[in-house]
Amino acid sequence: MGQFIGIGVLRGMLSRSDEWAYRIPFAIQWIWPIPLILGVYFAPESPWWLVRRDRAEEACESVRRLTSKVDPNFNPERSVALMIHTNEMEKKVSEGTTYWDCFKSIDLRRTEICCVIWAIQNLCGSAFMGYSTYFYEQAGLSVDQAFSLSLGQFGLGAVGTIVSWFLITYFGRRTLYVTGLAVMNTLLFITGFLALAPSSNKGASWGIGSMLLVFTLVYDSTVGPVLYSLVSELPSTRLRSKTIVLARNTYLVTGIVNGIITPYMLNPTAWNWRGKAGFFWAGICSLCVIWTYFRLPEPKGRTYGELDVLFERQISARKFSSTAVDPFDGHISEFDTNKPTIEFLEKASQAN
Hints:
- The chain has 352 residues and is an all-alpha fold.
- It contains 17 helices and no strands.
- The chain has a domain at 106-312: Growth Hormone, Chain: A, CATH 1.20.1250.20.
- Helix 12 runs parallel beside helix 13.
């Protein structure tokens, strides 16, 4: 939504030729800290943060504020008890771990998956979206048309993100990720072929713009948002924070590479690939589709214990969703009960 508002403001400034053409967009940004500060001030505190500081009663109050009143059977005390239990478990399992543990035994596979799927966000051709206005101009559209298409692009991106809320509920993460990449790969090839037409061909220019619009919708419905579910579900519990740090840094490094080479691709005074850059990204995206098909497992509907068992058994990524597994098979959890959880439940029960 921020990108949509930003490009809308820039589109409105196109007719101005004075200094306010750039001052107004800068000045409007100063408005946003006010509602953000108010929102943060009045927002309930995170119950997880309160639990980690042994403020369980305050955590219950926060849970009551954050939870819908529709379910009459909801018990905030039990929710907070589960948080206490999880907090105690994570403190024990993460004790003594290092980043080197992310590259040992079965955790190496989990680290690889998280790092690569986050890097794919940059390797799938999404760089076009960040340079869309300039890309449209190099494809042969006027400045007004380029900004108008960028406005529509970010609007579709917002719609796609909302659509992803429903898609992820009914389809698996792997299904959405692989399908999204395959469709985006096809769109990049089409973009490259359309760019072979002469720059004077306005139909081809509008076709390239349309492909990028559809590309944005598909990306923001699948690969973009689904990733954040995957990187939180696939690491082992004891190494989750460290794995996410490694994966995010992989994404940032590939983002630096994108930021360097993409302007060269589009700039007429440099490589001057323009829309033909679609072939380059289509080739990279094809490799991403192949890797994802063979390496990305399906975590939908699995508990963390079940995922641990599947990774320990070295089950193929394509068989994760169909393999039956007992999460307690060969595992005895030392965290089934713990003193802080029991004490809080007893105290809550007495209060009720």
